[in-house]
Amino acid sequence: MNPDIEIRRLLDVLPASGRMFTKITSKPQQSKVIDAPFPVPWQKPQRPIYVNFDLWRQLPQGQRDLVMLRTASYLTNVTWFKLNIYQGGALIGLVGMTAELLQGDLVGVLVATGLTTIAVNRVWRENRSVQRDIDADEEAIKVALRRGYTEADAAKQLLNGIESVANLEGRSVLNFTELIRFQHLKSLANLSPVGIPDSVKMYE
């Protein structure tokens, strides 16, 4: 497999947001089939996806498509500055902390720092929750529908892709998040009537 040709093909599979905000790079020295570092606020807008093409080529095309779509969906859906109650709390806390520092109010600084820490921690937990992984899987399947896949087939391809990637990486057991995703995808692929409880989806 020629990495440059495969990268161009994958870029055609990705939606416009994926092409704009992610960058696929060959990284043959890594042990993972595909790796995408969790994006942090100070990172460049374009988020890297590293692929070991020696391992990647061993996946069937359908699995490659869905695994890449899912990875790009996850990266583009991580938001740090979309203003909701927690991001707003962090912003207010930072402004308050700055004001208190300028006034030399130690108690005010401690209170503002505490509020900021709580809000930032909540944003971090939301971005790292299992729900984010499930949302990324569902978004990948939606994009796959526009690429000629059916919902059931796309779910099966991603389902099989999770197992194939684990096998290629020498992992005999899926991790907790992969197991939850696996069960959810089985439900979407009409392979199991059992869904995922809401209480599990916010697990970090």
Give a written overview of the molecule.
By secondary structure, the protein is mainly α. The chain starts with a helix and ends with a helix. 64% of the residues lie in helices and 6% in strands. The chain contains ten helices and three strands; from the N terminus they run H-H-E-E-E-H-H-H-H-H-H-H-H. The model has no long low-confidence stretch (mean pLDDT 81).
Keywords:
mainly alpha; 3 strands
Instruction: Report how far apart the termini are.
Output: 36 Å
Q: Structural class, please? A: mainly alpha
The largest pleated sheet is described as:
3 strands, mixed
Sheet-strand content, in percent, reads 5-15%
**Strands, count:** 3
Morphology call: globular
User: Which value, in Å, is the CA radius of gyration?
Assistant: 20 Å
Helix content range = 55-70%
Q: SSE order, as H and E? A: HHEEEHHHHHHHH
| Discrete helix count | 10
Question: For the residues shown, what is the average pLDDT?
Answer: 81
Uncertain residue segments: none
Biggest sheet strand order reads: 1-3-2
Q: Strands, helices and their partners?
A:
Blueprint: H1 3-13, H2 16-21, E1 22-26, E2 34-35, E3 47-51, H3 53-56, H4 61-77, H5 85-103, H6 106-127, H7 130-145, H8 151-168, H9 176-188, H10 198-201
Parallel strand pairs: 1-3
Antiparallel strand pairs: 2-3
Kindly summarize this structure in a few lines.
The protein is mainly alpha-helical and 204 residues long. The chain contains 10 helices and 3 strands, in the order H-H-E-E-E-H-H-H-H-H-H-H-H.
